[in-house]
TrEMBL record:
This is Cohesin subunit SA. It is found in: Nucleus; Chromosome; Chromosome, Centromere. It comes from Amphiprion ocellaris (Clown anemonefish). Residues 291-376 form the SCD domain. The keyword Nucleus applies. Residues 1-56, 1036-1062 are annotated as: Disordered. Component of cohesin complex, a complex required for the cohesion of sister chromatids after DNA replication. The cohesin complex apparently forms a large proteinaceous ring within which sister chromatids can be trapped. At anaphase, the complex is cleaved and dissociates from chromatin, allowing sister chromatids to segregate. InterPro entries: ARM-type_fold, Cohesin_Scc3/SA, HEAT_SCC3-SA, SCD, STAG. Part of the cohesin complex which is composed of a heterodimer between a SMC1 protein (SMC1A or SMC1B) and SMC3, which are attached via their hinge domain, and RAD21 which link them at their heads, and one STAG protein. PROSITE patterns: SCD (PS51425). Keywords: Cell cycle, Cell division, Chromosome, Chromosome partition, Coiled coil, Nucleus. Its main location: nucleus. One of its GO terms (cellular component) is chromatin. It holds the Pfam family HEAT_SCC3-SA.
């Protein structure tokens, strides 16, 4: 843009102004002939002073204009300002602007004063610029005066307020500025008065330290600049047209040339050039006065506004703005620390790269900032990463040579991202790069089939999938390409042709690896078309489909059924021995519409499919393939379809053959006197695998397989030479037998006596698994352990829930020997030093272990890197079920570790030893698992402290009276949980602690008593002044001293009532006495009842807290006769300590205020050196005394007085029996209760069909049913 002189930011408003413009300054002046008539004219003063005509700061008008407060007065309505009209949005912006222009033509000073107040009020300022201020004060003085008029009780202003009304206001605000400039573009903006005044005001406001002024004025200035850019563009077009007309007229022969027209065109071009120069001066003033400073403002919203608008300028007026002088600002801001600003940079660039005319002019910018754009595809803000990928896609469309292979590869792998918008954008980039270019020889190819264009594109997709080396994520790749390449991915006819047809002469056939990848992609495409939702892990769940999507889904499912009902048997026949291909192909039938087999007369193809499945079962022993066959039979055997009988007969014949073969082989295998050879063992194992796979999804109860499997397992225990795989699958098959039997009994479809049979079989099998836990073979022990976990969970007390009380006889509880064996297995197999390769096995076992979690949690710190995530998740789940029992279990774990340390180190151990520090670290980690919401865990934390205090004073000192209790050091560990207590509960727990203390304990200061001292201090911190903090929180706001000026008290301010004031003196005496003279620790604690008389409406729930402690005393507490002298001594010591503490707090408070003042004074040079303002975005705590930090501070702009927090969570009372000794549960109860919760975790590697069917029933156990177990 052409450089021009800058406007002064300190514009002096003229003291005299013309009351009415000349009649020739008409809006309808397209040629700009009269644009200069007002220039240089001396302003004349009207009959009345401006202040007399602007009642209320610009609130008045001359009577004849019909304009009051920036708007017409209609039907006697109350006068409204421009701000109110724009906020209400009742009138069209065009008419509002026209009314203002009419007022400006009548008296430009009054109209301009309304416009100034409009910007002031849009900033949230309650003040108004008066006529006197308008005439006699500089901009900086006016802004300083308006700063004092801000409402200090709220930091909100119109642009930051939420709600539909304020969102519309922002739009109306921007529209008003745009329409104002558009309507004034032919005359008023050239009068050297209106625009100069507005630009000067906005420039001054944009440099204010007040965020509201800076934000609002920056938005207004940027929108004003955009409107001026449109004006400059129109002028440029008019100048070009005028120049062409002039050249055309001048090139005519002399006889036909019109000299008068040449003079008019020359004069018009001169006027347009003058207007263009003035517009450029205005734009330069805004750009250098506002944009250059605010594009690096401390507030991200302001920076985003600047970048968004400069993108518009470059797009609208590319000849002036699309150059490196302006592009550099966008490039620099792409490194902004806020994602919102980076996002605006990318969207601004997208508008430029999208245009084929503008993109070639960005070559230098692209070469300079390309690497930054590529790196932004991995931005931590997902929205930024998505837009960066879309920008690279536009760059790719503009030129294929800009992005290197490395740049493209950095985007390719994002198709596997878990965030779906990123993956979809990357899929579009991949599609544009690999699939959008067609050669001249590809135009004549057929649409479908092996030789079609899709055939080559599908091959390209397979090659990309294999090169990415993420073969387990085919569903993710298909989902990424679905929106842009769904037609290609749904071309199953071409895929089938590539798999079944022979290659043409000269065509390269697919390799085995490529065929496997193609089968996987084909399956993923079928799943995507039939389910219409992203794969697991990508997306928030199933969404509601539209009518069009449902129709497309039904059509795709019909196509899949018709096509693969014929092709699937052929594919299975060709790849029958290939495990990977067969496993994927057998999943296709579950997406069939089975009615088409009948309506389409495809029964012969169904028979062919069943024969191929039978052949697959006969040839394979791989568990994955067999389970796929079982699942396919399960889907086809649906009684709702007419093909059920046909499929059921085929399934029964297959199972009859397998069971007969198994019984025959088992008799030979277990024949006495003969040692089985490997061939017999292999036959038994393969048949047993097939039966187990089918038993997972099908009820084989009528074949009575329990006896055969139990016999096989019993023989393995007796002989000890049974192959491990046979034992593992025999246990798995027996497990399925019991679960299917339980399902029949639970549904009530069993006959009398089945309950007794199931109970006997279940207990016998559990005993068998318990014996196998002690096996030498590790794999066998793991299988026995996992199955035993499942059974103990299923047959626990919760089996009787949901109206199944008749199953009470099936409840099975582990005895002590079984618990010990389970715990030993965990300690021997999981918590051992092992390499990373074997870690996964331990992690699979840990969450399903029905071991005593009390002991497992003791190893939390030692094995945190390996199993910390699983143990924390287990704690979280158990806490959701019962917070109290979870807390009791954690404290019991710490107590066990403490006892073990005492047995090893003795009672005179060093608290700095590694053993004790390890227990403290474990307690710290346990404390972190409770999270930040103290209200949710309030009761559990209180119970934890109760148990810890009782444990600390449980055993007397072995050194006799006068020495600390044996477990007193445990209080040091317990103090790690003090921060989780709310202040009200700290006082309650402290009182409970005092019940266990003697008078001598309170006076002790030796090192051995430090745990007690530190624990008491942790409970007293913030716990004794709870009531005082509330009082100060209410009264401090009313007594805060304003540095600028004091405001009259209003009903909205918080004040003490007359009743409060009448008793404030007595309350203060009482509270000071309570603070300085603490209750003697050896006296009975009184009820915690507040004596402060306060308005119930202003009382917080926690302040009315009343809690009665149990009357029982601990056995070791001795009754002491207190005399006045001892009490006085104790009081004096406590008063001295309180005074010292108060002095330290005062010194710290003064130092903090001093630092705050210095920091605020240093912030005067706002944003010139990228310093973040201290005044802006101050987030202050609602704690007492913090509101008074602002007292005495010398702010340059305004005082900040934030209102009290309205989001304080209400506190509920603790149940009285939490500190009742009668509520103490036995340790074994806590252990077994936690044991029940841990059963919920089932081994991820064991997919039990029946468990999945009954998952809702298993998870429905209640606290009542769990407690009744014990």
């Amino acid at each position: 843009m052409i450089a021009a002189q800058d406007l002064h930011t300190e514009f002096q408003f003229p003291q005299e102004a013309e009351s009415q413009l000349s009649s020739d300054t008409d809006l309808e002046d397209p040629d700009g002939k009269n644009a200069r008539t007002a220039k240089g004219m001396a302003a004349k003063k009207g009959k009345k002073a401006l202040g007399e005509r602007t009642k209320g700061g610009g609130a008045g008008r001359v009577a004849g204009a019909g304009w009051v407060n920036g708007h017409h007065q209609e039907n006697g309505m109350e006068n409204m300002t421009l701000f109110e009209v724009v906020k209400m949005g009742k009138s069209a912006t065009q008419s509002v602007v026209d009314d203002w222009i009419e007022a400006y033509k009548h008296d430009r000073d009054i109209a301009l004063l309304d416009l100034i107040n409009f910007f002031i009020q849009c900033s949230g300022c309650k003040g108004a610029v008066s006529g006197e201020m308008f005439r006699n004060m500089q901009n900086s003085e006016i802004i300083r005066k308006m700063t004092e008029e801000f409402d200090e009780d709220s930091g909100d202003y119109p642009l930051t307020l939420s709600g539909p009304q304020w969102k519309k206001f922002r739009i109306s605000f921007c529209d008003f500025i745009a329409v104002l400039v558009r309507q004034c573009q032919y005359s008023i903006i050239y009068d050297e008065y209106m625009m100069d005044t507005v630009i000067s005001l906005l420039t001054g406001l944009s440099d204010s330290q007040v965020r509201a002024f800076r934000h609002t004025s920056t938005l207004a200035a940027m929108k004003l600049m955009t409107a001026l850019v449109n004006v400059a563009l129109n002028l440029s077009i008019n100048m070009d047209n005028t120049q062409r007309q002039y050249e055309a007229e001048r090139n005519k022969v002399i006889a036909k040339r019109a000299n008068d027209r040449l003079e008019l065109l020359l004069q018009k071009r001169k006027e347009l050039q003058e207007n263009q120069d003035e517009i450029e001066n205005m734009m330069n003033a805004i750009f250098k006065g506002v944009f250059v400073h605010r594009y690096r403002d401390a507030i991200a919203e302001i920076r985003a506004i600047c970048i968004e608008e400069i993108g518009m300028w470059m797009k609208l007026y590319s000849d002036a703005f699309l150059n490196d002088s302006y592009l550099k600002y966008v490039g620099w801001t792409m490194h902004d620390k806020q994602g919102e600003v980076r996002l605006k940079c990318l969207t601004a660039l997208q508008g430029l790269y999208y245009s084929r005319e503008l993109s070639p002019r960005l070559e230098l910018f692209t070469s300079r900032f390309k690497d930054r754009i590529v790196s932004m595809t991995l931005d931590k803000e997902y929205d930024v990463a998505v837009q960066a990928i879309k920008l690279l896609t536009l760059v790719l469309q503009s030129s294929d040579e800009v992005l290197t292979a490395e740049d493209c590869e950095s985007v390719y792998h994002l198709v596997y991202s878990a965030h779906r918008p990123i993956a979809v954008s990357a899929g579009e980039f991949l599609f544009k790069k690999l699939f959008s270019h067609r050669g001249p020889d590809e135009d004549g190819l057929p649409r479908r089939g092996r030789q079609s264009l899709n055939g080559s594109l599908i091959k390209t997709t397979v090659f990309f999938f294999l090169e990415s080396e993420l073969h387990e994520h085919g569903a993710y790749m298909v989902d990424s390409l679905w929106e842009c390449a769904s037609e290609l991915l749904k071309d199953w006819e071409t895929m089938i042709s590539l798999l079944l047809d022979e290659p043409m002469p000269g065509e390269e056939a697919l390799t085995d690896r490529q065929e496997t990848a193609l089968v996987e992609i084909m399956l993923c495409a079928i799943r995507q078309a039939c389910e219409c939702h992203p794969p697991v892990g990508r997306g928030t769940g199933k969404r509601v489909l539209t009518a069009k999507e449902k129709k497309t889904q039904l059509d795709d499912r019909t196509r899949v059924t018709e096509m693969f009902a014929v092709a699937l048997p052929l594919l299975l026949a060709k790849y029958c021995v290939d495990i990977d291909k067969v496993t994927n192909l057998l999943q296709i039938p579950k997406y069939f519409d089975l009615d088409i087999y009948t309506t389409g007369r495809l029964e012969k193809h169904l028979d062919a499919l069943l024969r191929q499945i039978w052949e697959v079962v006969d040839k394979h022993t791989d568990t994955e393939v067999l389970e796929a066959c079982s699942t396919t039979y399960h889907y086809l055997c649906n009684e709702e379809f007419t093909i059920f009988n046909r499929v059921d007969i085929a399934r029964s014949q297959l199972l009859d053959e397998l069971v007969d073969k198994f019984n025959r082989l088992l008799e030979d295998f277990l024949q006495e006197g003969e040692e089985p050879d490997e061939d017999d063992a292999y036959q038994v194992l393969s048949t047993l695998k097939k039966i187990s796979a089918f038993h997972n999804a099908h009820d084989l109860s009528k074949w009575d397989l329990f006896t055969s499997n139990y016999r096989l397992l019993n023989t393995g225990l007796q002989n000890g030479d049974m192959p491990e795989q046979i034992v593992i699958h025999a246990m798995q098959c027996t497990h399925y037998i019991i679960l299917w039997h339980l399902a029949k009994v639970s549904d009530g479809s069993s006959i009398k006596g089945d309950m007794v049979t199931l109970r006997k079989q279940m207990r016998a099998f559990c005993l068998m698994c318990q014996r196998y836990i002690n096996s030498i073979n590790t794999a066998v022990k793991e299988q026995a352990f996992t199955i035993l976990c499942d059974l103990l969970l299923i047959f626990s007390h919760q089996i009787m829930s949901s109206g199944r009380e008749h199953l009470e006889s099936l409840v099975y509880m582990p005895d002590s020997s079984l618990q010990a064996e389970l715990l030993n297995f965990i300690l021997d197999q999981v918590f051992i030093d092992q390499d990373d390769d074997s870690n996964s096995t331990g992690k699979n076992q840990l969450p399903t272990s029905p071991a005593l979690f009390v002991n497992i949690s003791c190893l939390f710190s030692q094995y945190y890197n390996d199993y910390g995530d699983i143990i924390k998740e287990t704690m979280s789940k158990t806490r959701q079920i019962d917070k109290i029992q979870c807390a009791k279990t954690l404290i019991l774990s710490l107590q066990n570790l403490f006892n073990e340390m005492l047995s090893e180190l003795g009672f005179n151990f060093d608290r700095s030893s590694s053993a004790f520090c390890g227990i403290k670290e474990l307690a710290r980690r346990f404390s972190l698992t409770f999270g930040l919401d103290q209200l949710k865990t309030r009761e559990a934390i209180a119970m934890l402290h109760k148990d810890g205090i009782e444990f600390a004073f449980k055993e007397p000192s072995p050194q006799g009276e006068g020495s600390p209790p044996l477990n007193l050091a445990f209080l040091d560990i317990l103090s790690e949980f003090s921060s989780k207590l709310i202040r009200q509960d700290k006082r309650t727990v402290h009182m409970y602690l005092e019940r266990f203390m003697t008078f001598q304990m309170a006076l002790q200061r030796e090192d051995c008593w430090l745990p007690l001292i530190s624990y008491r201090n942790s409970l007293q911190a913030g716990g004794d002044d709870d009531t005082m903090s509330v009082i100060s929180g209410i009264s401090s706001r009313g007594s805060t001293i304003r540095s600028k000026k004091s405001k009259p008290a209003t009903a909205s301010k918080r004040k003490l009532s007359e009743e409060e004031n009448s008793c404030s003196s007595s309350d203060a005496v009482w509270m000071n006495r309570e603070q300085n003279v603490q209750t003697p620790v050896m006296m009975h604690s009184p009820h915690l009842t507040s004596t402060v008389l306060r308005d119930p409406k202003k009382m917080r729930p926690e302040d009315s807290y009343t809690f009665t402690m149990p009357a029982e005393q601990h056995p070791i507490q001795a009754a002491i006769d207190y005399n006045t002298q001892v009490t006085w001594m104790l009081t004096q010591r406590q008063q001295a300590e309180a005074r010292q503490q108060q002095e330290r707090v005062s010194m710290h408070y003064a130092k903090m205020r001093n630092h705050m003042q210095q920091a605020i004074r240093r912030s005067s040079g706002l944003m010139e050196d990228d310093e973040e303002p201290i005044v802006e975005d101050v987030m202050m705590s609602s704690e007492d005394r913090l509101e008074d930090i602002n007292e005495g501070m010398d702010f340059d702009t305004m005082d900040i007085d934030l209102p009290a927090s309205k989001n304080r969570r209400e506190r509920t009372e603790l149940k009285p029996d939490y500190f009742d000794p009668s509520s103490i549960m036995d340790d074994s109860v806590s252990i077994f209760h936690f044991l029940k919760y841990l059963y919920i975790y089932i081994n991820d590697n064991s997919e039990h069909h029946l468990l999945s069917i009954q998952s809702d029933k298993i998870a429905s156990c209640t606290n009542a049913s769990l407690k009744s177990v014990f």
